[in-house]
Design brief:
This protein is of the alpha+beta class. The strands form two sheets. It has a four-stranded antiparallel β-sheet, with no helix packed on it. A hairpin with a 2-residue loop joins strand 5 and strand 6. The chain is globular, with a radius of gyration of 15 Å. The two termini are 19 Å apart.
Length: 84
């Protein structure tokens, strides 16, 4: 992941050679996972909260994304946490 952090400011994603050279997705093969959404259908974002034991991101008391590794939750670009 450090490799990509170092390259990110220099990347222009419209350049197809970057994408075609296997630089995406961001995470290595063993780090890939699937995210699943569970909810009541209202999908209102009231509060974003991460449960590291269950690896879930809650957007309200009834809606959440499952299978989000802590490394993904804490990922930052330019000092900003992407999923926060």
């Amino acid at each position: 992941m450090f490799r990509l952090r170092k390259q990110l400011p220099e990347i222009n994603l419209t350049q197809s050679n970057f994408i075609n050279e296997g630089n995406l997705p961001i995470f290595e093969q063993e780090q890939k996972s699937e995210f699943h959404y569970q909810g009541d259908g209202k999908n209102e974002i009231n509060q974003i909260k991460y449960d590291d034991n269950k690896q879930q991101i809650f957007i309200n008391k009834n809606c959440y994304f499952m299978g989000v590794a802590q490394e993904v939750w804490e990922f930052k670009i330019g000092g900003y946490q992407v999923l926060d």
